[in-house]
């Protein structure tokens, strides 16, 4: 990609100079074109992530070709192939699941189009297939959720139900792993039921209803892999005549606005931050890649933990 883009600029530059145009005018004309394949619009987090990417592209003067895959991997693969056919300068995407990307990533490499992974990782062994992966450390997010639990919910048996994210996705796999790392060797903390709620409010509510029907007495804690599923579960807990945040403590991840509202209402106990605001970092990486600069293979987003007690103070400062 770099040779083709540079060659195009050089030959046009010669023409422009012959026409007496200053190079600076020419440099402005060739806009960087970024093809971005987004997973969908399943959660508040995803909506904020899309807004961040679109706004940052506008601010950076980058032409954004944006595709919404509606949670389907085949739609993401189709979009990436279309970006290759359109000869975009850079391709970026948030992989809905970890596996099944080798073929299309090799096609992008053969077309000399650099690829940036945002938000979620892929489990391909050949890491020459992407320039950089930027996003949160989901393992650490799971550990933070586990640490909050063992520090704040003690005494006697602690029966936990878990709402997992999308099956096969990096956040679902690693948030489970990190959480289990912390409660391992502490037999009083037991995950008694675990099922996917696919990161959505609707599914989170439906699965929590099933959990409550199966074990109405035995649930002490809900661990939700994202706030949207936690918010759906809160509705189910209330409809069952129980008090979310009291009868059942709730630990969640993302720290979206809805989570702060639930914490201020005393219905959610803690949310581990997972920032969707990756747009500016992505556009900087795109510009650096096009300019031939080296970009770190892994860019980790810095994040914190928001317990219920801090929600009212922090809420006005929240950007998503
Ligand atoms: C995490 C992101 C997850 C969020 C969910 O980086 O991939 O997907 O935690 C979103 O809210 O749906």
What is the CATH architecture assignment of the largest domain? 3-Layer(aba) Sandwich
Distance between the terminal alpha carbons, to the nearest Å?
Answer: 35 Å
Strand content: 15-25%
Count of the domains: 2
3D shape: elongated
The distinct ligands, each listed once, are: beta-D-galactofuranose
State the CATH class of the largest domain.
Alpha Beta
What oligomeric state is this?
single chain
- Encode the helix/strand succession as letters: HHEHEHEHEEHEHEHEHEHEHEEH
* Overall mean confidence score, pLDDT: 93
Q: Outline the biggest β-sheet.
A: 6 strands, parallel
Specify Rg, calculated over alpha carbons.
22 Å
Give me the count of strands: 12
Classified in CATH, the superfamily of the largest domain is Response regulator
What is the gist of this entry?
With 320 residues, the protein is α/β, with parallel strands linked by helices. Helix content is 45%, strand content 18%. It has 12 helices and 12 strands.
